[in-house]
TrEMBL record:
Coiled-coil ranges from the UniProt annotation: none
This protein's name: Heme biosynthesis protein HemY
High-level lineage: Bacteria, Pseudomonadati, Pseudomonadota, Alphaproteobacteria, Maricaulales
Regions crossing the membrane: 41-66
GO cellular component, as recorded: membrane
Gene3D superfamilies associated with the record: Tetratricopeptide repeat domain
Compositionally biased spans, kind Basic and acidic residues: 469-490
Species for this entry: Marinicauda algicola
Amino acid sequence: MIRLIITIALCVLTAIAAVWLTLNPGTAQFEFLGWQAETSFALAMGLLLVLTFLLVVVWWLIVKIWTAPDTFRKFRERRRRESGFDALERALIASAAGQGELAVRQAARADALLDRPALSRLLAARAAEAAGDLAGAEGHYEAMLEDPRTKLVARRGLASIAEARGDSQLAITHASDAFKDAKLRWAFDTLFNAQVAEGRWEDARKTLAEAERRKEIAPDRAARRKAVLLTAEALACEQSDPDRAAELAEKAAAASPGFAPAATLAARLLASKRRHRRAAELVEAAWQANPHPALARVYGDLRKSDSKAKRAERLRALAALNPEHRESRLLKAEVALETRNLDAARSALAPLLAGGPKTARVCALASRLSRLEGEEEAARRLMARAAHAPGEADWSDIDEQGRPFPYSDEDWKRMVFAWGDEARLIHPRYERFESLAEAVPETALLEAPATRRGPAGSEPQLPPSGDASRPHSDEDRRDARYYEPGRAPDDPGVGPESGER
């Protein structure tokens, strides 16, 4: 629109000038070297304009001819740069697509066309990685270490190559240098992962603390990872330095109360130092956050001198801290069966039998209840069902000798991320089907003596107990134990009244 207005204005001005010159013709005289000329003013102005235009054209041609070599050189440089960027684009696309050979060729072409050594080296390194040439990529990254602009990206590339080769020590070297120089999330992840892979729990814990200070990781995730690292570190020094192990385990339990391995280890170590109250507090906090059968075991064994009745009372109090949880119901049922409180056992087992998975543990407890009630046939049926029912992953965390969480170093390395990032306990022995080779712990409770029935309508009679804390017979002695591993029978048998063999 503006151009149209300007064009119209110029046309109007030209027309006005033409009319004015027509109305005022005038004359113009020229004299040069004896030559004289006289013409109208309008013609003189026209000739002057034409001459000016010719002079401009001639000057433009002279300038073009004079600058032609430089212009041609710039044209070639521009074409070369465009070709280089085209090769760079093709190399990046090929590298992202995994076309290693094409990426290497285009990277070499871009390096030859572009005078950008830093960019060319980076592109060549990425292309070599895409082609699977880790040695070539490593050489390019090492050359990039000399340039301050590419030092960090070189550290990242070298750390990545070291991880791919399984060289955790070299990955730690490069990642730690980058982690010190700048606030980089990849440096923290690489360094922390490599330290965990090497089992360097204390170094990993220090790295985690620094990352938390820099706000590179969420506080809750950092606390859970810290709990696992402290627990693994405590286990590593338990034999050589029990006091330090107890201190580390206590810190782990405080960092993440729901982490059962930390609470059980801390409770066991503190109890050995006669700090029973603190041990009980840690287990109770863990039970409120995330009940686990190992917590009940260590809680029941805190004071070896407790009588059976007092032990049962403490376990009932523990279950009351999280009464609606499935593990609390199971614990109440086990304690009730141990103390022969059949009504309480029936009340605790009823919701578990009515809904939820019928695991081997639940079936075994129900079988024992049926036997204590004198229902031998029902007990055998439930026992047979327990032998084929699915196990519980939590039970695999307790081995047949009763030591909770018998994990290897590799298991603890996995636990750092499973619990730290997902708040999920792993069960390595359950995953490896090791728990299938063991009996369901509750099946041993089926060996409890059956009640002796009196006359019709009378109450079931239990064996004489005497001192509740001291079982008299072998059967009572077995029953007095809270957990005792056994083996489920292959054939539950039939009732004696059937007469079959």
